[in-house]
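ARCHIVE CARD
CATEGORY: sequence design from structure
SOURCE FIELD: tokenized fold
FIELD CONTENT:
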């Protein structure tokens, strides 16, 4: 009896809720309507995006969702920065001990520099690279675990070019410098 009541209530809710017949513009502008979705659903769903997508300078790939979030976040931060609110700057600067950082100079990095300079063989260089990676510095390649494109039930390791220490925007956007 309980199963019947639950099933009927779910059926009634579904019937009154109707169905979604329109997609948001952010989705429809990515669809290639010239493709039959039964023939090639991926091309149908992403075809227009593929035709119009541009990988930004300094990037090796683009993830639309995170890229959009990053753009919006930077716009918000740029506005906050351009408002030049003294309290915000004071709060941020209170966490920076620039005097100590300036007095230390490159001293904290000396061991890494010495190890790099003393690497005389390929094996030595790989060992040094491994130590740098342990400290969060991708050297030759940035290894990421992502869903396998051929079998989404599994993860695969992908190697991307190691990022530069500073993004190119560091040199072009005043608020980042």
């Amino acid at each position: 009896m309980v199963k019947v009541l639950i099933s009927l209530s779910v059926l009634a809710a579904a019937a009154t809720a109707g169905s979604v017949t329109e997609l948001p513009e952010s989705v429809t502008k990515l669809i290639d309507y010239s493709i039959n979705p039964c023939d090639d659903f991926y091309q149908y769903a992403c075809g227009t995006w593929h035709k119009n997508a541009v990988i930004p300078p300094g990037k090796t790939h683009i993830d639309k969702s995170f890229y959009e979030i990053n753009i919006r976040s930077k716009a918000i931060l740029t506005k906050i920065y351009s408002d030049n609110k003294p309290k915000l700057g004071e709060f941020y600067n209170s966490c920076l001990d620039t005097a100590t950082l300036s007095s230390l100079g490159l001293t904290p990095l000396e061991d890494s520099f010495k190890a790099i300079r003393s690497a005389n063989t390929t094996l030595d260089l790989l060992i040094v690279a491994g130590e740098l990676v342990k400290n969060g510095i991708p050297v030759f390649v940035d290894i990421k675990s992502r869903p396998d494109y051929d079998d989404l039930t599994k993860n695969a390791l992908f190697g991307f070019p190691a990022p530069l220490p500073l993004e190119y925007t560091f040199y072009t956007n005043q608020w980042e410098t």
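CARD ANNOTATION: Residues 64-82 form the longest helix (19 residues). The two ends are 68 Å apart (CA to CA).
SHELF: design records, drawer C
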